[in-house]
Write a structure and sequence with these properties.
The complex is a heterodimer.
Chain A lengths: L15 E3 L10 E2 L3 H5 L3 E4 L5 E6 L4 E3 L17 E2 L14 E5 L7 E4 H7 L2 E9 L22 E10 H8 L7 E6 L12 E5 H4 L5 E6 L2 E2 L9 E3 L12 E7 L6 H4 L3 E3 L17 E3 L6 E9 L5 E8 L5 E7 L7 E2 L1 E2 L9 E7 L5 E11 L22 E7 L2
Parallel strand pairs in A: 7-16
Antiparallel strand pairs in A: 1-3, 2-26, 3-4, 4-5, 5-6, 7-8, 9-10, 10-13, 11-12, 11-16, 13-14, 13-15, 17-18, 19-20, 20-24, 21-22, 21-25, 23-24, 25-26
Chain B lengths: L2 H12 L7 H7 L16 H8 L6 H4 L7 H13 L7 H14 L12
The chains are: A mainly beta, B mainly alpha.
Chain lengths: 401, 115
């Protein structure tokens, strides 16, 4: 990236506040103190962003406060920020170049952003971008790693070009095994493994896998990958390379630290439908698809004596089949009404109205199931790196008499 | 990210002239941006700051203090050396684990936290 202007990221703090309650609805509280501990206690606004919950300042890791999930699309300014390395260049869109190279290509390419915008068909889709470690901070016993609460995720309308179209122009050879993606960021010290991720051919060539230059109708925010990022609908954000500057068609599986040494789970514990066979080894398999999940985003009194519960549900793109809520610790479940469908990779809003809840404190549970027959679990599945937390969402509410 | 860029940054660390690179030098060498937590008080603090704040802010340690057992800190320091190539020798690693186990644990006095 010799032609780009580069700066080390520093996080100027515009606002700072200690968060007292979870979102605007004071009735909504996480069970126990897990969430309060897990999520950042400080709200800080990074350049171009609203106040988000800070986990770490350098590199910037900030999660989206729960109230933003009350809209199906997450605003760009509130979208979570996640970096492994602290040297984050600012790239001028006019000077940006994407290199497509590798031993498994007929015709290596270099593309400008203007070429991507004008020489390939534009595609738009809505998809959830969720960190593999979202909700890690809720695991008991705790596991090391960023202690995320519920907000290491967001849902956006992405616009860009099909990765498959770009690869078709470069001519993928039959000896291609994986595609590797390199981001423009770097670690401050030499020796730390560069952040490079790969995809299996099937996922890379899937028509929904995009190189996106727009998010919710605007250019990508600086901290979400401007000017170009990979969008891998259904798979966790570890693959959604921001500021992607280099794509390499590999003739052997990628072996760098971020593939071989990180983002892996015990294969036996997780029934993944989409696998990454060339990266599986022994007991551990790479994290791939997003587990079916849901979130209660608000509870409020509606008509006399009634309580309306709203939330969102999502999965890897199999499609949400149903969301159920329970007000009696899982003894009985009621089916919520599903809302607007923005596509199979999107958050799906839902709501349920209780006609009579006994006054006092009670716990509300929500669980989603998808069309592939998968349902959220009552207890999160323990794994050493704390990935794929998809236990029922539980909130404590106070019903007024 | 190109090796060239990383090399340039490492070089920038030793340049002290007031050029446009200065902001980069400061941030890369871990000088406070005003918002970063400071290291907790305790014996071994200087070595800890010198070896553990070049790649990331000390938020990473604060975040783990609630379950910061000696075993956790041993594993983390080992991981930093092996996986991320944090430059420190065995003796320094031992001293840093001592400091972390004493100061970044569930029972460490919260009063020593400086934000």
């Amino acid at each position: 990236m010799g032609s780009s202007r580069t700066t080390v990221f520093r996080a100027p703090v515009a606002r700072r506040a200690v968060l007292a309650a979870l979102g605007a609805a004071a009735v909504l509280q996480a069970t126990g103190s897990a969430l309060a501990r897990a999520a950042g206690q400080l709200l800080e606004a990074l350049p171009g962003k609203r106040a988000l919950r800070r986990l770490t300042n350098r590199p910037p890791n900030y999660e989206t406060p729960l109230e933003y999930f009350r809209s199906v699309l997450t605003p760009n300014e509130a979208f979570f920020v996640r970096y492994h390395h602290a040297v984050i260049p600012q790239i001028d869109a006019a000077e940006f170049r994407l290199e497509v190279v590798g031993a498994a290509l007929e015709r290596p390419l270099t593309l400008t952003l203007a070429q991507l915008r004008t020489e390939f068909p534009a595609v738009e889709l809505v998809a959830v971008c969720q960190c593999s470690g979202n909700r890690r901070g809720l695991f008991e016993p705790p596991v090391p790693g960023l202690q995320w609460g519920h907000g290491a995720m967001g849902n956006a309308r992405w616009r860009g070009v099909r990765l498959a179209d770009v690869l078709a122009r470069a001519g993928l050879r039959s000896n291609a095994v994986e595609l590797a993606f390199d981001a423009a960021d770097a670690a401050p010290l030499e020796g730390t493994p560069d952040y490079v991720k790969s995809l299996p051919l099937g996922k890379a060539l899937h028509p929904d896998t995009l190189l996106a230059y727009e998010m919710n109708g605007a250019p990508l925010p600086a901290l979400n990958g401007h000017p170009l990022r990979l969008v891998v609908p259904g798979w966790t954000a570890t693959y959604w390379i921001k500021q992607v500057t280099r794509i390499e068609a590999l003739t052997a599986p990628a072996s760098g630290f971020w593939m071989a040494g990180a983002y892996r789970m015990p294969r036996a514990s997780f029934p993944l439908l989409e696998r990454f066979p060339s990266q599986e080894s022994g007991e551990r398999a790479p994290v791939t698809e997003i587990a079916v999940n849901s979130l209660i985003t608000s509870t409020e009194p509606s008509a006399a004596g009634r309580t309306r519960v709203r939330g969102i549900a999502w999965d890897a793109g199999h499609g949400i089949d149903r969301v159920e809520v329970s007000a009696d610790g899982g003894r009985t479940w009621q089916r919520a009404e599903l809302g607007e469908d923005l596509g199979r990779y999107s958050f799906r809003p839902w709501q349920f109205e209780y006609s009579s809840l006994a006054p006092g404190a009670l716990e509300l549970w929500a669980r989603a199931s998808n069309r592939a027959g998968q349902t959220q679990v009552e207890q999160p599945i323990a794994n050493p790196s704390g990935y794929q937390h998809n236990a029922f969402h539980r909130v404590r509410i106070e019903v007024n008499s | 990210m190109s090796a060239h860029r990383v090399a340039m940054l490492t070089l920038a660390l030793v340049i002290t002239a007031a050029t446009g690179l200065l902001a980069e030098v400061r941030a890369a060498s871990g000088a406070a941006s005003g918002a970063e937590p400071e290291a907790r008080a305790g014996e071994g603090r200087e070595l800890f700051v010198a070896r553990c704040s070049s790649c990331h802010s000390l938020d990473y340690m604060e975040m783990h203090a609630r379950f910061g057992t000696r075993a956790l800190w041993e594993a983390e320091v080992t991981k930093m050396r092996n996986a991320y190539k944090a430059p420190l020798n065995d003796e320094e690693a031992k001293a840093i684990v001592e400091y972390l186990a004493r100061t970044y644990g569930p029972t460490s006095p919260a009063a020593s936290v400086s934000r």
